[in-house]
């Protein structure tokens, strides 16, 4: 069974925003077996 969903998360954390990006990037880099590849875009 495959679940497909989209989520939009808005973060207003000032200086803490970079640590959110770093955390996601570390998860994707060191846990490649994780089937949920998280991508973050800034606009």
Key features of this structure:
43 residues; mainly alpha; 1 helix; 0% strand; flat
Structure description:
- By secondary structure, the protein is mainly alpha-helical.
- 33% of the residues lie in helices and 0% in strands.
- The protein has one helix at residues 17-30.
- The longest helix is centred in the middle third of the chain and has 14 residues, at 17-30.
- The protein is flat, with a radius of gyration of 12 Å.
- It starts with 16 loop residues before the first helix and ends in a 13-residue tail after the last helix.
- The relative contact order is 0.13.
- The model has no long low-confidence stretch (mean pLDDT 71).
Give the SSE map.
Elements: H1 17-30
Query: Could you spell the SSE succession in H and E letters?
Result: H
Tally the beta strands: 0
Largest sheet: none
Oligomer: single chain
Q: Which overall shape is indicated by the principal axes computed on the Cα atoms?
A: flat
Q: What proportion strand?
A: under 5%
What is the number of helices?
1
- Computed over alpha carbons, the radius of gyration is 12 Å
**Class per helix and strand makeup:** mainly alpha
In brief:
The protein is built from 1 helix and no strands.
